[in-house]
Every structure is written in structure tokens, then in C-alpha cells.
Write a structure and sequence with these properties.
Largest sheet: 7 strands, mixed
Order of helices and strands: HEHEHEHEEHEHEHHHEHEHEHEEEH
Strand order of the largest sheet: 2-1-3-4-5-12-11
Bound molecules: beta-D-galactopyranose
Radius of gyration: 21 Å
Shape: globular
Number of strands: 13
CATH superfamily of the largest domain: Response regulator
Distance between the termini: 35 Å
CATH architecture of the largest domain: 3-Layer(aba) Sandwich
Length: 371
């Protein structure tokens, strides 16, 4: 389908939602039973990524009569379950939820299903339950593959030290990112372009291109950041302290997202035995865009949250309309194949940062210095 036709259809869907939402009662999602149509639950305000999503939801909803409420789980699966119950008591028909912990969220969405609510897993897949109707996501394998390809494209000669870092093992995406990255990196480890610097488990598996979930777990268990920038910093310090001289010099670093990348970059940048580093990221956080402009972070993977929000809201509208939302594939969550709508990602580095993030209207030029 042509892009502009899609755009018109989406706009129509969003307008329909406005009509449906206003026909169903109160706006702003306040009040008691039956007052909210769509409940949105996001994992935590502590990571800028999710504050970004909240803002994009609000932007998409501003000036309309959407009957929507957004709640944060603050990194706690118990709080997440409580949030879902609160929204169920307000009569939601659709739940858009990004789980803190993919497995632990099963109980919350099973409660929603019991109430006849349609469940849309947002960005992160809820695992090992059949109580998920749809999944709206970016192409997470492509995220990891793009990060790894960037390291390959900027590698320097032979035997370059490669430092691996991963996201939280409770997040299914962390596996997809790592899997996508490993499939690109492994042949380059096998041919001697890179040598693994900080994971004995990865070293053991260096001849295996397609890793099982358990094999990935063993590596992620060693190099996880838990999506926590402080944990990332501590790990990087430990790794550099332990590293022999031949594991320094010009290094390549697979960092899973922007928050962890900035802290890891700071640690590597302050080690005088590290001559240069190339480091990946993800999410196009403002602070990392500044790091890219300042040559402190090499790249980020831009996930246009506006698209994800539109897709999730578009799906909610279709469900409220009694229609079956359009999907583009499916993801197995360990229990069932969940119908999914997937969005592409864009690699951003210093060369295209202005075009992709400023000229596209995602951020404003005056939010940065040295552009
Ligand atoms: C992932 C998400 C990423 C990143 C990370 C840390 O699940 O897809 O974009 O932000 O969580 O919160």
C-alpha cells in the first residue's frame, strides 16, 4: 500500500476513534466504572524511552475526546497488575500494555481477558500465556542486526576487541536484539575481525551462529545491564579493570540502548589505554543525540515512537469498531502465535542525525548544541 493512502486510512481510523470515544462517555479517563475505553500501561518512568512513549501518546490524544488513561508500573510487576485492575474497574475494552517483565505480566493480562478485554502487547511481548491478542512492535531483530552491522562497517583490521552488553533478561526484546546482533557478529568473530573481550560464555559459543534461547540466556546472564545505566557503568568498569592490554586499543562495543551506551561510553572514554571506540545505542534519546553530535556515541537506532503509538491506537479503534485489526505477521510467545504489526527502524549517526531527527520534526534543533 502506498504510504499516503496508509496515512489517510490511519487518519480516518483515528477520527473514528474520536467519535467512538466521545460516544462512549467522559473524556480524560477520570471517574468510576465505565469511564475509560482504552487503558495504557507502561513499564517505568525511570527510563527516558517510556517517558517518550507517554509524551507521544499524549500528543496523539491532545485536542480529542479520547477516553484513555496511561499508568506507569515503576518497574514492579505487582504495581503493573494493580494498574490493570484499576483500569478494568474503569470499564476498559482494550488494554495496551508494555510489560515490565514479559512472563510476570501474564497474570495481569489473564485477568483482563477474563473481563472480555482485548489485550495489545506494546513494544515488548508478554510471554507464555495465550491471553495476548495482538502485538505492536518495532522489528527488534533488525535493531540488533543494525547495531552489529555498524560495528562491522566501522571495524579496524583484524582481532579488534569486542565488548558485548545486553538488556534485561526479563524483557523478550533483549533476546531479539541480541539474536539479531549475534547473527551478524558471529561470522566476524569466526573470521578473526573481532575477538570477544568480556564474555566467556560468548567465547564458548563463538562457532554457533544460531543460538538457542538457553544459549542466549547464558551470554545475557553475563553481560546484562538490566537496562540500568548504573549497572552498565559498573560492568564496564569491571571489564576494563580485568582487561589485558591486547583487549584495549581500538575497541568495538555492542551497547543495547542509549541509556546504557552513554554510561559505557563514559567509562571507555576515560581509559587512556582505549585509543578509540565505536559504540552502538538504541531509542534516539535526546541525551544520546547530543552524544552523537559530540562524537561520544557512534550511532543509535531510531524507533519512531509516533508510528508505534498510531499503530496501537489504530488497532484499539478497530477493536472498538468490532473489526479485526490488520497485522503483518506473528510472534510466538512460548504459548501461542500472537498476531503482530511490525514497524521498521532507522540507523542514525552523525551523518544523518539532522535529516532523520530534526528535519523530520521529531526533535527541535534548539534542543541540541553543535548541530
Ligand atoms: C526495550 C525497548 C527498547 C529499550 C529498552 C529499555 O524493550 O524495546 O526500546 O528502551 O526496552 O527500556
Amino acid at each position: 500500500m502506498k504510504k499516503h493512502v496508509k496515512g489517510i486510512l490511519l487518519l480516518a481510523a483515528v477520527m473514528m476513534f474520536s467519535i467512538v470515544a466521545s460516544a462512549c462517555g467522559n473524556s480524560n479517563g477520570g471517574g468510576g466504572g465505565g469511564s475509560v475505553n482504552v487503558g495504557i500501561v507502561l513499564p517505568t518512568k525511570d527510563e527516558p524511552r517510556w517517558v517518550q512513549d507517554e509524551q507521544r501518546f499524549k500528543d496523539a490524544l491532545s485536542g480529542t475526546k479520547y477516553n484513555t488513561e496511561i499508568l506507569f508500573s515503576q518497574g514492579s510487576s505487582a504495581k503493573e497488575k494493580e494498574n490493570v485492575e484499576t483500569l478494568l474497574n474503569k470499564g476498559i475494552k482494550v488494554l495496551i500494555i508494555c510489560p515490565q517483565d514479559g512472563d510476570a505480566a501474564a497474570a495481569a493480562v489473564e485477568a483482563a481477558k477474563k473481563d472480555g478485554v482485548t489485550v495489545i502487547s506494546y513494544d515488548r511481548l508478554i510471554t507464555n500465556t495465550d491471553a495476548v491478542d495482538y502485538y505492536v512492535t518495532f522489528d527488534s531483530l533488525a535493531v540488533g542486526a543494525a547495531q552489529a552491522q555498524y560495528l562491522v562497517d566501522h571495524s579496524k583490521g583484524n582481532g579488534q576487541p569486542l565488548y558485548l552488553y545486553a538488556g534485561a533478561a526479563t524483557d523478550n526484546n533483549a533476546f531479539l536484539f541480541f539474536q539479531g546482533a549475534w547473527q551478524v557478529l558471529q561470522p566476524k568473530i569466526a573470521d578473526g575481525t573481532f575477538k570477544i573481550a568480556n564474555s566467556s560464555e560468548a567465547e564458548k559459543l563463538k562457532d554457533t551462529k544460531d543460538l538457542s534461547r538457553d544459549q542466549m540466556s547464558s551470554i545475557i546472564g553475563q553481560v546484562t545491564t538490566n537496562w540500568d545505566p548504573n549497572e552498565a557503568k559498573n560492568k564496564a568498569q569491571t571489564h576494563l579493570t580485568a582487561a589485558a592490554a591486547d583487549m584495549k586499543g581500538d575497541v568495538a562495543i555492542l551497547a543495547p540502548n542509549d541509556g546504557t551506551a552513554r554510561n559505557i561510553a563514559d567509562v571507555f572514554g576515560s581509559d587512556s589505554a582505549v585509543t578509540s571506540y565505536v559504540i552502538t545505542g538504541q531509542d534516539a534519546e535526546k541525551a544520546s543525540i547530543q552524544y552523537i553530535i559530540d562524537n561520544k556515541q557512534s550511532m543509535t537506532v531510531f524507533k519512531d515512537v509516533r508510528t508505534l503509538v498510531k499503530d496501537a491506537m489504530g488497532m484499539a479503534v478497530e477493536v472498538l469498531d468490532g473489526k479485526s485489526p490488520e497485522t503483518t505477521g506473528s510472534y510466538n510467545n512460548g504459548s501461542t502465535d500472537v498476531k503482530a504489526k511490525q514497524t521498521d527502524v532507522i540507523v542514525v549517526d552523525k551523518d544523518n542525525v539532522k535529516k532523520e531527527l530534526i528535519d523530520s520534526g521529531y526533535y527541535k534543533a534548539d534542543e541540541f548544541t553543535g548541530l
